[in-house]
Amino acid sequence: xxTTSEDVWQLLAELATAQKETDRQLKELGKQIGGLGxxxxxxxxxxxxxxxxxxxxQQFGMxxxxxxxxxxxxGQHMEIDVLAYANGELNTAYIVEVKSHAREDSITxxxxxxxRFRNFFPEHKNKxxxxxxASVDLSNELREKILQExxxxxxxxxxxxxxxxxxxxxxxxx
Length: 174
What we know:
Blueprint lengths: L4 H55 L4 E10 L2 E11 L5 E10 L2 H17 L7 E10 L2 H9 L3 E6 L2 E4 L11
Parallel strand pairs: 3-4, 4-5
Antiparallel strand pairs: 1-2, 2-3, 5-6
């Protein structure tokens, strides 16, 4: 069976069409995977919320516990997974950053939120401010780094998040 140049051109045209279809499918798959990642983050935050409400309310005496706080001010934006505070004698606020898999940049992200918090929430400017990093997956090495930064660590245990700090831990106020 002889192959003519016309046959070759026909095959190349079919190949180009198939390649465009593959590219379109890969792009769509990428969007779906990205959406799945965002959904998993929301799932983790939802999983952490009941436990964090218990910790913040019962252990730390917080009166107001707000999940998923978003604020925009002067063209700047901030997202807080959980914000909790108490007025009066306690006069304290906690910011919880929830991660399915904590990495070193999770510490940087939480510290950045803590440092910018008072610019976005001047009504809390006189409160002591603490950070909690809650994570499903966290290495012991990273746990030590988080504690060295004066941040609380919460890990999941038996489907419930619990504080994972030494007895003599002193959190740093930001």
